[in-house]
Amino acid sequence: MFIKRLLSSFLTSTLLSASFLSLTACSYEVGNAPTPTPVIQPEAQSQPEVMFEADITPSPQPFQFSLPTPGAEPVTNWRPPLYPAPWAIAPYDHFYFTRPIAADQKNWPAADYRYGGVFFGRNIVHTGIDIPSPEGTPILAAGPGAVVWADWGLFMEIPGDNTDPYGLAVAIRHDFGYNDQQLYTIYAHMSLMNVIKGQHVETGEVIGFVGSTGATTGPHVHFEVRLSDNSFFHTYNPELWIAPPQGWGVLAGRVTDEKGELIQQMEILVAPERA
Ligand SMILES: [Zn+2]
């Protein structure tokens, strides 16, 4: 399947009329893969606008959304293997990271509280994804880099603050960037950390264990991708940065009215561009 639509990050999203659909999508087809950029000059760069032309024409009719009927739940713990990272097979792909939870168990985010979710209030935007793994599940470095935070207090940036909503958290400044800007990943709510600040880690290294420290409703890892600045104001949708299981893909989007207000209960049709 090949899907190509308007790319618009939640943080840089444009306001679209009610009949426009803003979709973020990624394709999976062997081709020339761009490699992560090594240059790291965070303060000298501006935020990138990742925009691509949409080939969706405005329509007065609601878009329709249909999905195949889900099959039966798998009877084993087998999961599709993950693509190796970086997995970037089109110019607008940037699957530079592996998943922070291993592929032999459930390692996808909670569907009802994805990036950009406002479940806890209109002004409390979810800046990452939550993977609800059992307490003690190893948390893996999503890519190589230096540990720049391994402590309580990451959310408020107050080291040692055990009232911080992120609980015990680790931040990694990666060895590569994107568009010459620095990339960071964040892992929050750990029960235990396995790294110290200043340590260098490789992809897949165990950096800690799933817990429920900080503000949580249960054990999970809260995972963020930050670009250019290690701040929650500079997060991007992690699902567009972590390599999907083989044969799977990522499609994300939002439908808003001309004021940028989310439209609820709208039907959207998603179809491959070619058979
Ligand atoms: Zn979260």
Protein model, in words:
- The protein has 275 residues and is an all-beta fold.
- It is built from no helices and 11 strands.
- The strands form 2 sheets. Strands 2, 3, 4, 5, 6, 7, 8, 9 and 10 form a 9-stranded antiparallel beta sheet that branches. The protein has a two-stranded antiparallel ribbon with strand order 1-11.
- Strand 9 and strand 10 (235-236) form a beta hairpin.
- The chain is globular and about 50 Å long.
- Mean pLDDT is 75; it is low at 1-33 and 39-78.
- The chain binds zinc ion (ZN).
- Zinc ion binds at residues 126, 128, 130, 222.
Short structural summary:
The protein has 275 residues and is mostly beta strands.
Alpha-beta content class: mainly beta
What is the helix/strand order? EEEEEEEEEEE
Q: What portion of residues belong to β-strands? A: 15-25%
The helicity comes to under 10%
Oligomeric state of this protein: single chain
Cα-based radius of gyration, to the nearest Å: 19 Å
Largest sheet: 9 strands, antiparallel
Spatial shape: globular
Protein topology:
Layout lengths: L21 E4 L103 E3 L6 E3 L4 E7 L16 E11 L2 E13 L6 E2 L4 E5 L10 E7 L7 E2 L14 E4 L21
Antiparallel strand pairs: 1-11, 2-9, 3-8, 4-5, 4-7, 5-6, 6-8, 6-9, 9-10
The chain binds zinc ion.
Features:
about 280 residues, mainly beta, two-stranded antiparallel ribbon, 11 strands, about 0% helix, binds zinc ion
